[in-house]
Structure formats: C-alpha cells, structure tokens
Amino acid sequence: MASGKHFKYIVLGGGVSGGYAAREFAKQGVQPGELAIISKEAVAPYERPALSKAYLFPQSPARLPGFHVCVGSGGERLLPEWYSEKGIELILSTEIVKADLPSKTLTSAAGATFTYEILLIATGSSVIKLSDFGTQGADSNNILYLREIDDADNLYAAIQAKKGGKAVVVGGGYIGLELSAVLKMNDLDVTMVFPEPWCMPRLFTAEIAAFYESYYTNKGVKILKGTIAVGFDADANGDVCTAPKSEFSSAVLIAVKLKDGSVLEADIVVVGVGGRPLTTLFKGQVAEEKGGIKTDAFFETSVPGVYAVGDVATFPMKIYNDERRVEHVDHSRKSAEQAVKAIKGKEAGSAVEEYDYLPYFYSRSFDLSWQFYGDNVGDAILFGDADPGSAKPKFGSYWVKDGKCVGAFLEGGSPDENAAIAKLARAQLPAASPDELKAAGLQFASKI
Ligand code: FDA
Ligand code: NAD
Predict the structure, then answer these.
(1) Tens digits of per-residue pLDDT, 381-423?
(2) 427: domain CATH number?
(3) 274 CA to middle of ligand 2, Å?
(4) Residues near 120 by beta carbon (within 8 Å), at least 6 away in sequence
(5) Does residue 74 fall inside a structural domain?
(6) What is this model's ipTM?
(7) Fewer CB within 10 Å, N or C, the chain?
(8) Which residue numbers delimit the FAD/NAD(P)-binding domain (predicted)?
(9) 15 pocket-lining for ligand 2 (C-beta < 6 Å)
C-alpha cells in the first residue's frame, strides 16, 4: 500500500479541469515531483464532451488517446507520457474518500494518504440517479447513466448488443438530446421522455425547443413531454436487476412505466436527469454557496491554499455581479487556468486579473450545432430560418434585458458568426426594438 506521499500541489480530480490545470502548471513552471493529479478514473484527463457524441458514433467512434486534453480547445494532446516527461505524477484509479483540510491530508479508498501544501479541488459532478427519487426498479443494471468513460463503454456495449432495438431516454436536457441523437444514428428506435413542456428548458425558449423537437421527430425520435418514468420492470425473460452491467442479453426487455399510466418497452434505458457537484468530501470544511464550493475571483475557497474549479465552484460572475456555478467545459478549462495562474502569481508576488467570465455553452447533435453566449434572461427574440425542414437551417435568439442585449444563441453559425454573437453578449449593447432585432437578425451582431 502506497501511503504517506507528499506533494507541493495536488489536483483532486483528473477530468477536464484537472488536465487544463496540469497544462497551466507546466506552463508556469513546476519542478518534477511537485504536482500530482489524483483521479478515480483509470485514464489521463480527457475531453469529457466526446463521451456523448463521437465516442458513440456508429462509424469510426472516437477513442483515447484521440481526445485527451487539451485537443478540445485546439491545444496539444496531453498523453500519459506528457505527465511523466514533466515530472507530474498521475495517480489514477484512486478514489479519495476522506479529505481533512486542517491537516492537509487526503485518504484514498485503499488507505493511502497524500499530503499537500496547495489543493485544487476539481471533482466535477456525479449523475443524479432515478433511485435518488425512489423510482421503483431504478437500480437495475440495465438502466444506464453517462458521466465517465466507463459509463460510455457500458453504453457503447449496450448499443452494439441491441442494434435495431428500442431505447428510452429519460431526461430532456443536454444528455437527453445528445444521446437521443446518437442512439438514433445507431439505428435504435428512440423515445425521449421528460417532464417539462419542452426540451432543454434551462436554456431554450419554447420557440428554440420547437425547432429541435421537430428536427428530432423528423429523424424518427419519438418525444413524450410532460411525463416522467415512475418505475421499471423486467419482463418474464430476465431479471435485469441481477444482470452484470456488461451483459446485455437480447432476451431482456425493460418495461418503463410512465406517470401517465402508459408503458414503454426498452432494450436500453439511458437516464440524464441532471448532475450534482461532488462537494461531499469537503462538507463543513469550506464555505458553500448555491450548491457549490464558494470561491473568490481566483478560485480560492474560504480555506487559504485550497482552490476549487470547474463544476464544483460557485464563483463571482463579474459581468452580472452575481455568484454562479457553471457546469460546462469552457468554464472548467478557464477556471483551472485562472486558479493555477493565481497560485503561481501569489508565489511570485505578481498580480493576476480577476476572472471575468462570459458564459459559453454549446451542443452538437445530428448535423446540428449551436452556441450560446451570455445570459438567457429578459425577453427572447427569435430570428432567422428556424424551419427544421430547411436544407441548412440557421437561426438564433437574442435575450434583451433592461434595453440591453445580454445573451445570444445561434444554430448553424460559422466561426465568425459565433464570434460575433460572443462579442455582442460581452458588450451588452443597447438593443433595437424587438421588430428591428428580428428583421436585422445576425446582422445586428455582425456589425459590432
Ligand atoms: P470532470 O467531471 O470533468 O472531472 C472530475 C474528475 O474528478 C473525474 O475524473 C472524477 O472521476 C474525479 N473525481 C471525482 N471525485 C473524486 C474523488 N473523490 N477521488 C478521485 N477522483 C475523483 N460541456 C460543454 O460545454 N459542452 C459539451 O458538449 C459537454 N458535453 C458533455 C458530455 C457529457 C457526457 C458530460 C458528462 C458532460 C459534458 N459537458 C459538456 C460538461 C463538461 O464536461 C463538464 O462541465 C466538465 O467536464 C467539468 O469539468 P470538471 O473538471 O469540473 O469535472
Ligand atoms: P440537465 O440539467 O441538462 O437536464 C436534466 C433534465 O432532466 C431536465 O431538463 C429534465 O428534462 C429532466 N428531468 C428531471 N427530472 C426528471 C425525471 N424525474 N424524469 C425525467 N426527466 C427528468 O442535465 P443532464 O442532461 O443530465 O446533464 C448532466 C450534466 O452534464 C450537466 O452538468 C450538463 O451541463 C452536462 N452536459 C453538458 C453538455 C453540453 O454542455 N453540451 C452535454 C452533456 C452533458
């Protein structure tokens, strides 16, 4: 048992933030043996967004080492060798089960201890499970979730085993939309089920959602709105509750019971009903805010020398004078870089600018690709060609609050057009009237 290892810096979590933190440490300068990344996963940090997209493609699916960080932002791919060359210790397949901040000690499930001078918490999120709500039969092994690469491998295996079968996707958010598309691309008969009146309600307006729902329907995805799965049963052919995760016997069908009384049959059930930031190790030891670990504009927590980045951090969102948590990859990259700059800046006695983040979210599914920048508050004004039947639909939405354009969404934009909406959302320019905005469409952003 390896125990009692000491590092100057420990990054807890080897996901997106962990990888980008390692790169920034290397850029700023670390001595061999000073930095360790500890991760529950068995692989070096990778670009998590690939898991719900190219990883599951029917042809030439993406596989490691193809999508290790930092390819997702156009940077160098950090292979495991990169960490050894830099003298950064990658401690993989190691779950930390106890964190004692006063003694600066982390303890793994195997009983190993790690001490540090500076800690960067980058534990990300875990999935919310239907069993958390007490949904009957929800702990069956054939009910799948997607967070880590092992989950993606299970899902890939299920897709291969169930070609031509039926999939029920529970949830109408990011995971629901991205997985429904990729399951359909794999020739499964896909039904999406979610409680809200339209998909992705935390970002989409009813008009935006109408486009995606029609597009998906045209692709053959069935969408059941306004209901939830209240229970799961295996049919007489098999007890799904005792089947090992990797075994997807073709005989097993799951009955998905919906709140409205109807029952769907499924070979695969995939659930995406939200994430929960992994902060439990630090409960009672650091200040929390809005469900995350509260940080300053340099991602330092209430405990000096302890930083939190990525999904777990609730940080000052300077542009909106608000404290927020963001569960998206762009922020996980940038917050990690900011924290490392701040750590190294403090050591060198040099000033680092406050984090001034403009929210940026994106998604891709089928042939579609959208980007969003800013804040989706106020009145939304749709513009462009939102006809799902168009050969190349291109449309967007501006959000106007207090006379200013505070957010912008664009489906099908070019890199220049996406850059233009980002600039607009950052500048928060005075908005024209709704009619003028609608008529000007993308021109409004492009002329800045
Ligand atoms: P992240 O989850 O990446 O990493 C956390 C790491 O910490 C994991 O490796 C975990 O195992 C490890 N860990 C946790 N607890 C531990 C412990 N106790 N001991 C040891 N290790 C521990 N965003 C976006 O903007 N566009 C997109 O297209 C997508 N797509 C997407 C797809 C899928 C399938 C998911 C799940 C998520 C996305 N996201 C996304 C969201 C984005 O990936 C997410 O916001 C970042 O990965 C967050 O980065 P973090 O480093 O904070 O957590
Ligand atoms: P989400 O918050 O985007 O969506 C959750 C959805 O679950 C809700 O919209 C709702 O439709 C549904 N829901 C809630 N309770 C339900 C119930 N009882 N039954 C059925 N549906 C229910 O969360 P997610 O899609 O699970 O994504 C998980 C995490 O991964 C989030 O942090 C998300 O930001 C991240 N992610 C991001 C991207 C991206 O940015 N492109 C892609 C994939 C995942």
Answers:
(1) 999 999 999 989 999 999 999 999 999 999 999 999 999 999 9
(2) 3.30.390.30
(3) 4
(4) 9, 10, 11, 12, 17, 21, 307, 308, 309, 336, 339, 340, 343
(5) yes
(6) 0.98
(7) N
(8) 7-334
(9) no
